[in-house]
Design goal:
The structure holds 2 protein chains of 2 kinds. Chain A folds into 2 domains: 26-248, Thiamin diphosphate (ThDP)-binding fold, Pyr/PP domains (Rossmann fold, 3-Layer(aba) Sandwich); 272-440, Pyruvate-ferredoxin oxidoreductase, PFOR, domain III (Pyruvate-ferredoxin Oxidoreductase, domain 3), CATH 3.40.920.10. Chain A is 34% helix and 18% strand. Chain A has helices spanning 26-40, 76-90, 103-108, 110-119, 164-170, 186-195, 220-225, 241-248, 285-298, 345-353, 356-359, 386-407, 412-423, 427-437; strands at 47-51, 67-70, 96-102, 123-129, 132-133, 139-140, 175-180, 200-205, 233-234, 272-280, 302-308, 317-325, 339-342, 365-369, 380-384. In chain A, the strands form 3 sheets. A 7-stranded mixed beta sheet of chain A has the order 2-1-3-4-8-7-9, with helices on both faces. Chain A has a 6-stranded mixed beta sheet with strand order 11-12-10-13-14-15, with helices on both faces. In chain A, α1 packs across α6 (186-195), α2 packs across α8 (241-248) and α13 (412-423) packs antiparallel against α14. Chain B is built from 13 helices and 15 strands. Chain B has helices spanning 23-33, 48-57, 71-83, 94-110, 137-141, 158-175, 185-189, 259-273, 276-279, 299-313, 331-337, 354-359, 380-386, and strands spanning 18-22, 38-41, 64-67, 88-92, 114-120, 152-153, 178-184, 191-195, 242-244, 282-285, 292-296, 318-323, 325-327, 343-348, 367-372. Classes of the chains: A alpha/beta, B alpha/beta.
Chain lengths: 443, 388
């Protein structure tokens, strides 16, 4: 037996030549990230560095052993979230996902940071804030201090900088720290952030020697003066998203209702019938259509149903279009309805507007609420006291069921069974409606 | 002859198992059948039904179905999860697709499989949420900077939504690329009787994985022939992975125009083109001695089938074809369907004849006309008028 020795892993490439400008804070950033990984001694195969766009984004090429995921501008945190969810929920949750992002990426991808903080995903964000867009010519960013001079703020920046730590903290981030890139303790802070179970953000303040220092009076002392989140600000007690998901959502069995329909009834129908129900949202128009469709399928027919309503869904008109057929239904639109049921003023307005009335032929049976204003329609129109007899809520289904008694399109027995099953003791009201309406439909 | 890769490997369900389902619900059913493990969604009419069905069903099967704060995040979550090895899908419509275009290109470049179900509505901009459209054909296909082929499959019924979703997963996984299911509001939101015993599907595939058994070092984007698909290893797995959306060599190292980097770019297209024939699905209602070929897809394919039947009953000679694989363009099958006809009618619910515009060069010497509509379903009557 050999005695087990603890292997010390290496992460950064040996003798890596850094691609950054002389004096750039990114040198410290990379070295401190490496220090942190060495300190934690994580298996590099269980580390994924997700990098963003910009100078800091190219640091992935400096690491030899961890997985790297170089992404699009600002989206790194969103990709990292997906990686972590798949790792934390679908796999063994042993991987550490680290986002490397600049102030530009944090701005364009702010929502991803906000949402990751809210979810408390186990992702560590190391935000390199050098107050500007270095790679593209030193343009100011939403993180630039007031009066900051850049090629795009020649008179000095007049908009106060974003306080990202405050933002993610407000969104529930459980670990938030700020430090200068030159801070000798930064490796320890990063290690603490990576080890933290849940979302962690470290804002690392840096100097861009190419664009910031030549035009602004800014030095290490001033950077240190900007630091507000220097103490460990870790909110304990909140589960990370993956743990919570596994506990509350994953594998939770809900009762699945078997909604298989057995065609135990029959219908004499040959060919296709097309029906439009037009009424008011909340008055069970689409439910009427659904139950009729179910009855048709129970009767051995094919059926399609499509519904329409205003975008707000719960107000205004409600329209349902049904096709029932002894054959496979191909065309699912209604170019000439066999029946139209209009149960309310909203229903009439929409039947006019969507062209239903003008598509009727002399063969179309139209059943309309009696109190509606007169309307033009070539069909056979029955104006019945639907709302007086059935109230608005039962009007569409009772009218359709009554018409079916006359037409025999679907098995009435099937339809009655659907009504009885759905409405239980209240189904008697529908039976009474149908008794009253059938004699009025004098086809 | 092209190979039509539609295996019916359906096992025995009861002789009849009829349920009422929408096309959107059947996309979710298809995804579950294909072994989808990760879904991220954001609400949008008319695609929300897919999101709802996945949230209801996927966690029960030990998969992840989550809500994203926008469509950019939804697709990025999926692509990240795919990098960690999960079979992933999202669903949206035109306005959401607008936001996803950056990330679908990233998936293409990083060779991470993902399936995107797009349920078309009326554009442009927010257009009409509950109005149909088949006008995002070109918008969907030609969305990459650089011009790469994205496979697109278009279902016309809830049954085809199921089948096409399993096929989309197959090609996404086998070719390590994003694949799109291009449905439409009519197909997606309409309810219909679906006999589950009659459903067709592709077998479930998973991307081919790298192992050291072949004695080679793992390179994230390795291939011998340009059309080869790199063997996959997930981040978090045993082999170092180097993903990048920037131009790279086989190792994944960011590079400018080295010949290997250019090869990688060419490879992204070649691996798709090598499977054009296998991906091609065109369903033809055979009509010998036809003088007209009627082409359509999505909801209009149902209308066209009806129009062709009526026309043939009147003594016309119309061959009808439902194009399931829109891209890569199934050239061989389309030419085969057009044999002997003098006239081709392409019916699609958009203004300018988008699909017609990309296939018309296949049919030199034949008359090609369109039946088009904006915001209104094409009727059998409209098509019959064109079947002169």
């Amino acid at each position: 037996m050999t005695e087990e020795t603890v292997q010390q892993y290496a992460y950064k490439k040996e003798n890596a030549s850094f691609p950054f400008c002389k004096g750039c804070g990114h040198h410290h950033y990379v070295n401190h990230l490496d220090d942190a990984l060495v300190k934690l001694n994580l298996d590099p195969k269980k580390v994924c560095i997700v990098s963003d766009i910009g100078c800091i984004g190219i640091l992935d090429s400096l690491f030899a052993t961890p997985h790297t995921f170089h992404t699009t501008h600002g989206r790194s945190t969103a990709f990292a979230t997906g990686i972590e969810l798949a790792d934390g929920i679908l796999n063994d949750s042993r991987m550490k996902t680290i986002v490397v992002i600049g102030d530009g990426g944090a701005t364009i991808g702010l929502l991803h940071l906000v949402n990751a903080a809210m979810m408390n995903v186990d992702v560590t964000v190391l935000l390199a804030n050098n107050f500007l867009y270095g790679m593209t010519g030193g343009q100011h960013s939403q993180f630039s201090p007031l009066d900051f001079v850049t090629p795009t703020t020649p008179a000095g920046n007049i908009v106060p900088p974003m306080d990202i730590c405050s933002i993610v903290k407000t969104c529930g981030a459980s670990f938030v720290r700020q430090a200068a890139a030159t801070d000798k303790n930064l490796g320890n802070i990063i290690a603490e952030a990576i080890a933290h179970p849940g979302f962690a953000l470290v804002e690392i303040l840096e100097l861009c020697t190419e664009w910031a220092t030549p035009f602004n009076k800014i030095d290490g002392k001033m950077i240190n003066g900007k630091i507000q989140y220097s103490e460990s600000d870790s909110t304990p007690g909140r589960s990370d998203f993956s743990s919570l998901y596994k506990e509350k959502v994953l594998g939770a069995q809900k009762k699945n209702v078997d909604d298989t329909i057995t065609p135990k009834f029959t219908s004499p129908l040959q060919g296709t019938r097309r029906i439009v129900l037009s009424g008011t949202a909340g008055e069970k128009v689409q439910l009427a259509s659904f139950l009729f469709m179910k009855s048709a399928i129970s009767s051995g027919l094919h059926a399609t149903q499509k519904n329409d309503n205003p975008v707000t869904q719960g107000s205004g008109f409600s329209v349902s279009e049904l096709c029932i057929s002894s054959e496979e239904i191909l065309y699912t639109g209604i170019d000439e309805p066999d029946a139209v049921i209009i149960s309310s003023p909203e229903g009439l307005k929409e039947a006019r507007a969507n062209g239903t009335l003008s598509k009727c032929s002399t063969n179309t049976v139209v059943i309309a609420e009696q109190t509606l204003p007169e309307f033009e329609c070539p069909g056979k129109v029955f104006r019945l006291p639907l709302r007086a007899i059935c109230t608005g809520n039962r009007a569409a289904l009772s009218a359709l069921a009554s018409l079916n008694v006359k037409k025999g399109w679907v098995s009435q027995e099937a339809l009655v069974e659907m009504i009885d099953t759905k409405f239980k003791e209240k189904s008697l009201l529908y039976h009474r409606d149908i008794e009253s309406l059938v004699p009025l439909i004098t086809i | 002859m092209a190979i039509v890769m539609v295996e019916n490997n359906e096992k025995t369900m009861n002789p009849s198992s009829i349920k009422i389902r929408t096309g959107n619900q059947m996309i979710a059913e298809g995804a579950l059948h294909a072994g989808c493990q990760f879904f991220a969604g954001y609400p949008i009419t008319p695609a929300s039904g897919v999101y709802k069905a996945m949230i209801e069903q996927l966690p029960q099967r030990n998969g992840v179905a989550i809500s994203a704060p926008d469509e950019i995040s939804a697709l990025a979550y999926c692509v990240g999860a795919s990098g960690r090895g999960a079979k992933a899908m999202t669903a949206s419509s035109g306005p959401g697709w607008s936001l996803m275009i950056e990330t679908v290109q990233y998936a293409l470049m990083t060779e991470l499989p993902v399936v995107i179900a797009l349920v078309q509505r009326l554009g442009p901009s927010t257009g009409g949420a509950t109005q149909n459209g088949q006008a995002d054909i070109l918008f969907t296909e030609f969305c990459t900077s650089g011009g790469y082929t994205i496979p697109i499959f278009a279902p016309s019924t809830p049954q085809e939504c199921f089948e096409v979703t399993t096929i989309a997963f197959k090609w996404a996984e086998l070719l390590r690329t994003p694949v799109i299911i291009l449905s439409d509001k009519e197909v997606g939101m309409m309810s219909e009787d679906v006999d589950f015993a009659q459903l067709k599907s592709s077998p479930a595939w998973y991307r081919k994985e790298f192992s050291t058994q072949n004695g080679k070092e793992h390179l994230t984007y390795d291939f011998q022939e340009l059309a080869d698909v790199p063997l996959f290893s997930p981040v978090g797995g045993n082999y170092k992975v180097t993903m990048t959306g920037s131009a790279h060599d086989k190792r994944g190292t960011l590079q400018k125009n080295s010949s290997e980097t250019l090869d990688v770019l060419i490879h992204l297209q070649k691996k798709i083109e090598a499977h054009i024939e296998e991906m091609a699905i065109v369903r033809v209602d055979e009509q010998e001695n036809a003088d007209t070929l009627l082409l359509s897809f999505g909801i209009t394919a149902r209308t066209a089938k009806e129009a062709a039947r009526r026309a043939n009953a009147e003594g016309k000679k119309v061959r009808n074809a439902n194009i399931i694989t829109l891209f890569p363009i199934p050239e061989t099958l389309l030419k085969e369907a057009a044999r002997g006809v003098r006239r081709i009618v392409v019916a699609e619910e958009n203004m300018t004849g988008q699909y017609r515009s990309v296939i018309q060069s296949l049919f030199a010497g034949k008359e090609i006309v369109g039946v088009n509509s904006v915001g209104k379903m094409i009727t059998p009557g409209m098509i019959m008028e064109a079947l002169v």
